[in-house]
Structure formats: C-alpha cells, structure tokens
Amino acid sequence: MQKQLIVTCKELIDKLEKENKLSYEEYLYLIKNRDKCANYLYDKASKMREKIYGNKIYIRGLIEFSNYCKNDCLYCGIRRSNNRAERYRLTKEEILECAEEGYKLRLSYICYAKWRRYVFYRRNTNNYNKRNKIKIS
User: What is the SS3 string spanning the chain?
Assistant: First the structure.
C-alpha cells in the first residue's frame, strides 16, 4: 500500500526546484493533480528559463549521421529489424558540410547523433574553429 501524501502542489514544486528530485509518490501526486499544479509549475519554469537564458533564443541543429541501429525497439522506425527503412551513413565530408552549414546559419549548438549516442558542441562565438572541435573517426 502506498503511503498517504498530504502536501500542496506548491510545496512539491518548490521541493523539486530545490532538491532536483521527488519520491515516486510525490511525482504521482503532481501527475494526478496536474490541473491544479499547472499554473504554478509554468510560472516557476518561466522564471527559471529567464534566469538561465534571459530573453535570448537558442537554435540547435541535429546531424544524424547514420540511421543504422543495433537496438530493436518496437516503437522505433529505424529499429534493427525494420527492413523497410532506407538506411544511410554520412561520410566524414558530409558531416563536416552539415556542420559548416550549421555554422553559417549561426546555430547555437550542433548535436551529432548516432545510435542514440549524442555529442553536443557549443558554438564559441569568440573563436569558433569547427574543424578542431569535431572529432570524427
């Protein structure tokens, strides 16, 4: 039997902000009471976003250099057993061309993705040398 949880949405959201975690029961309470909790949560999230990012807009680019996957997740269109998926692998040159295009578009971040493994590169606007930051083997 689950223990009884008697708190308010505000208390749980404040706790989550402070401790970065809640118990299973506390998360469940927020989910079940999401209509009551939504406004306070949105206000907190908006304040946190503004504190971290200000009023700037960051645009990220994703370069998926392969859609071959060793996993066989039933929900996924590129799962290993899906023999109808059109497979591809970008060459090193194609990946660098995509990064070059992202640089020209002034993307804040570029993410290289392969088989659910992600590597992020943050744009350093002072001295951006994409060829030194990208390590492709």
Answer: CCCCCCCCHHHHHHHHHHHCCCCHHHHHHHHHCHHHHHHHHHHHHHHHHHHHHCCCCCCEEEEECECCCCCCCCCCCCCCCCCCCCCCECCHHHHHHHHHHHHHCCCCEEEEEECCEEEEEECCCCCCCHHHHCCCC
pTM above 0.85, yes or no: no
pLDDT, greater one: 59 or 16: 16
User: Whole-angstrom Cα distance, residue 60 to residue 111?
Assistant: 7
Q: State the Cα–Cα distance between residues 61 and 99, nearest whole angstrom.
A: 9
- Domain map (residue ranges) of the chain: 9-53, 60-133
